[in-house]
Amino acid sequence: MVEVDEDSAGQRLDNFLIRHLKGVPKTHVYRIIRSGEVRINKGRASADTRVEPGDLVRLPPVRISDKVAEKAERPAPAREFPILLEDEHLIALDKPAGVAVHGGSGVSFGVIEQLRQARPQARFLELVHRLDRETSGILLVAKKRSALTHLQDQFRERETGKTYLALVTGTWPANKKVVDLPLHKYLQADGERRVRVTTADDPDGMRSITLVKVRSTVAARQAQGLPAMSLLEVTIKTGRTHQIRVHLASQGHGIVGDDKYGDFDLNKRLQKLGMKRMFLHAWRLQFNHPATGERVALNAELPPELSDFLPPPNQA
């Protein structure tokens, strides 16, 4: 029997169980909910039931595999990340590229697991939103349940302002300021997740809007076999999976270093020149503070591996 505490107030039952039954596959968590083995205050409950402080949750005995148990005994290495803002409600950190935001899909751990290990005294640390593993920049972590729900509501209602810096191949037309194309998620034969632009009549298509502003252009570097490029400020009005990457590539201007939707031959040449990652960075984030309501505007400057690749402004 587990008693729900204040920090878990309002959490969905499935998410509450996933937190408490570490190492138990999600499929099993949903199975025991559906079967009625999980009870709240002696009554049956569904996955989307919200738990409240003082609720008594009865859990059946669960077994985890030896492999999962062994993994649980080897926790994520403790790691702190560059902090842009921190108070008693939230942390805004600057996530490096190459680090997943959480474990799963072949990744043992991510930012949130490492941060929890680095701060064992923290009662509550949860991701507010996500960034692709290959994307660097601003990531929000809530330190209270109330802050988490408040901030997630803002993301869902599109009250946040999210602007990225992206370097793309070719010269982006200055008058092309909006990409409004629906996106369709699908799985490849190997199970890899992909996204493509689709038509308005696709029932599985999700409307996606991306605003684009040209910050600067980079002349072709013929001696190095590099084409002209454009540095863009990209603001997303919808937060779809791989939205920026797919929208920009659909216009013939793939993101430099993108191994899923970019120019693979160019990427190989770039790697030899030291550019070993995708040039996409979560640069600016605006939101209302969950406690004070004040508008917060954060900036995370380009990391050196990206800024060093750009020529000085007078040469761009």
Can you offer a commentary on this structure?
It contains 8 helices and 16 strands. The chain is α+β, with helices and mostly antiparallel strands. The protein folds into 2 domains: 2-72, RNA-binding S4 domain (Structural Genomics Hypothetical 15.5 Kd Protein In mrcA-pckA Intergenic Region, Chain A, Roll), CATH 3.10.290.10; 75-315, Pseudouridine synthase. Strands 5, 6, 7, 8, 9, 10, 13, 14, 15 and 16 form a 10-stranded mixed β-sheet that branches. Strands 1-4-2-3 form a 4-stranded antiparallel β-sheet, with no helix packed on it. Strand 15 and strand 16 form a beta hairpin.
Q: Would you spell out the secondary-structure blueprint of this structure?
A:
Layout: E1 2-3, H1 13-20, H2 26-34, E2 39-40, E3 43-44, E4 56-58, H3 66-73, E5 83-86, E6 90-95, H4 111-118, E7 126-127, E8 136-142, H5 145-156, E9 161-169, E10 178-180, E11 183-187, E12 193-197, E13 209-218, E14 229-236, H6 243-250, H7 264-272, E15 280-288, E16 295-299, H8 304-307
Parallel strand pairs: 8-15
Antiparallel strand pairs: 1-4, 2-3, 2-4, 5-6, 6-8, 7-8, 9-14, 9-15, 10-13, 11-12, 13-14, 15-16
User: What's the number of domains?
Assistant: 2
**pLDDT averaged residue by residue:** 90
Count of strand segments: 16
Structural class: alpha+beta
- Report the span from N to C terminus: 63 Å
CATH topology of the largest domain: Pseudouridine synthase
- Looking at the overall shape, the CATH architecture of the largest domain is 2-Layer Sandwich
- CATH H-level superfamily title of the largest domain: Pseudouridine synthase
Helical stretch count? 8
